[in-house]
Amino acid sequence: MKSETSLAALASIVGEAHVLTGDAAAPYLTDWRGRFTGKALAVVRPESTQQVANVVRACAERGNPVVPQGGNTGLCGGATPDDSGSAVVLLTSRLNRVREIDTANDTMTVEAGCILQTVQEQAQAAGRLFPLSLGAEGSCTIGGNLATNAGGTAVLRYGNMRELTLGLEVVGADGRIWHGLRGLRKDNTGYDLRDLYVGSEGTLGIITAATIKLFPQPVARCTAMLALPSVEKAVALLSRARAGFGAALTGYELMAGVCMRMVTHYYPHLRLPFEPGSAQAPWFALLEISDSESEQHARDRFEAVLGEAVDCGEADDAVVAESITQSKALWHLRESITLAEAESGKSVKHDISLAVSRIAKFLAQADAQLQQRFPGIVNITFGHLGDGNLHYNVGTSERFTGDDLVAHQAVIYAMVHDMVSAMDGSISAEHGVGQLKVGELARYKGAQEIEVMTLLKRALDPHCLLNPGKVLPAY
Ligand code: FAD
Ligand code: MLT
Ligand code: ZN
Question: What burial letters (b/e) apply to 306-318, b meaning 16+ CB within 10 Å?
Fold first, then answer.
């Protein structure tokens, strides 16, 4: 094998048809936002864990870095190689089998390249729920969800991808396979490798399969969109919803009015379900509960709590979905924000989390400081308020153009992240670090944490061949 060229070695493992170069490789070399483009020796598509192990070993022998890629929907450039041209992009699309559904254990073992939506559908067909839910679910993969510890819109009730994972199968930097596909809910046998690999963004190992948790299907769901007068009221409403619904509260999303107006501007077939007055509200919330008793029980609880919220002025108006179709339409409005934001031109995206109690103060301070320094910027603020996670994005206007934004991106990052850090928040709540935020991580994570992370990276990947330059600087 050593005497073969790298391309021939890769072809002998995955088959020539699955080693892509030139134009065939191009779609995999730019990230979803179009912010990063790299070069690669080849893009390869292994179809089994053993083939992944052989690819990694072949790359290690020749010093070629390996960049794992699932659906390429990540928002931090984590799946895009650098521009050296020496990396091999390892696509997981053919690792797409559901290996087992164990309804007695409420678990499912799936390969890393399975599309999230397919996993949800397979769980549903087995009478169970796999609750991870996000706008990119039609194209993102379980491997990408694991590698980024994805969040989304049901974290409030079910947790992030880490909480949804019981076991993993991983190929390490030396090509060895760790067989950790255990469906155990209790296992205290030392350090938890599963938790180390989840969220490691392909820098410590290539995840090839996972055993994930399943849940009972809810008997009923209720969804509502509310027009709100302020963020303070949105936070008060969240407390009311937590108290009123308890664990039944599945999602609580916050959207600035500007986001909703952006969505209906770029997608005029979508309509906000409010009268003109409420449609101009400064803020909107999307609430969902899941009930294990009955439709009527869910509906009565839902209307009682939302009625109180309107009566006491926390919400100005509320629209409750009358059917699954209406519920989907409300969610579609929310899920379209990212696409509408992309249509609107350049933006600086933030993915911050804070204690919910600090959100209103943060927004007041950050909006005022940014507006003072960069008059005309537009705040495109939305996110998972129930988790204290906001996408505090900054967009352009006629007064503050895309070129201005690019020129000032570093300053905007520093202003926002300094405020977040001063309030003990996180600069990456759910999207990860990728290559976008390597510098930011070094700035805000404590020296001791960076030191331990670097020690772990060097121990598991001594030659820096697994997704180099992501999360931590390359060495
Ligand atoms: P990719 O983009 O292919 O890769 C992401 C990272 O994981 C890269 O570092 C890559 O190297 C690594 N990786 C991929 N597969 C593996 C593997 N098998 N082993 C090891 N490493 C691997 N994210 C959220 O958390 N919440 C949201 O609500 C959300 N909404 C989104 C909405 C839209 C419209 C879009 C475009 C993105 C959204 N995202 C969201 C971001 C993105 O969808 C998630 O990060 C998702 O988990 C990425 O999955 P992927 O398969 O596309 O991974
Ligand atoms: C979302 O919550 O919609 C996503 O995380 C995507 C984004 O931040 O644009
Ligand atoms: Zn999000």
Answer: beebeeeebbbbb
Question: Do the beta carbons of residue 65 and residue 466 sit within 8 Å?
Answer: yes
Instruction: Give pLDDT tens digits for 67-84.
Output: 999 999 999 999 999 999
Ligand 1 pocket, 428 CB below 6 A?
no
Select from 134, 158, 196, 387 the residue to mutate for testing ligand 1; criterion: most ligand atoms less than 8 Å from CB.
134
Ligand nearest to the CA of 341: 2
Which residue has its alpha carbon closest to ligand 2 atom 9? 338
Structural contact between residues 420 and 352, judged by C-beta atoms closer than 8 angstroms:
yes
pLDDT tens readout for residues 4-56: 678 999 999 999 999 999 999 999 999 999 999 999 999 999 999 999 999 99
Q: Is 386 in the pocket of ligand 2 (CB under 6 A)?
A: no
Residue 189 has pLDDT above 60, yes or no: yes
Q: How far apart are the CA of 430 and the centre of ligand 2, in A? A: 9
Cα(32)–Cα(34) distance, rounded to whole angstroms?
Answer: 6
What is the enclosing helix (H) or strand (E) of 48? none
Question: Is the C-beta atom of 336 inside 6 A of ligand 2?
Answer: no
DSSP for 241-304 reads: HHHHHGGGEEEEEEEEHHHHHHHHHH-TT---SS-HHHHT-SEEEEEEEEESS-HHHHHHHHHH
Residues present in the chain in total: 475
The whole-model pTM stands at 0.97
Q: What is the mean pLDDT of residues 328-355?
A: 97
Q: Is 338 close to ligand 2, i.e. is its CB under 6 Å away?
A: yes
CATH class label, 2-91: alpha beta
Cα distances (Å, whole numbers) of residue 190 to 133, 181, 193, 194, 211 = 31, 16, 9, 11, 19
Instruction: Give, for ligand 2, the residue of 286, 391, 430 to mutate: max count of ligand atoms closer than 8 Å to Cβ.
Output: 391
Tell which CATH classification among 1.10.10.200, 1.10.300.10, 2.60.200.40, 3.30.465.10 matches the domain 98-216: 3.30.465.10
Reference 346, options 409, 391, 418, 433; nearest CA is: 409
Three-state DSSP at 150 gives coil
Q: Is 220-338 the same fold as 98-216?
A: no
DSSP state of 133: B
Residue 206 near ligand 1, beta carbon < 6 Å: yes
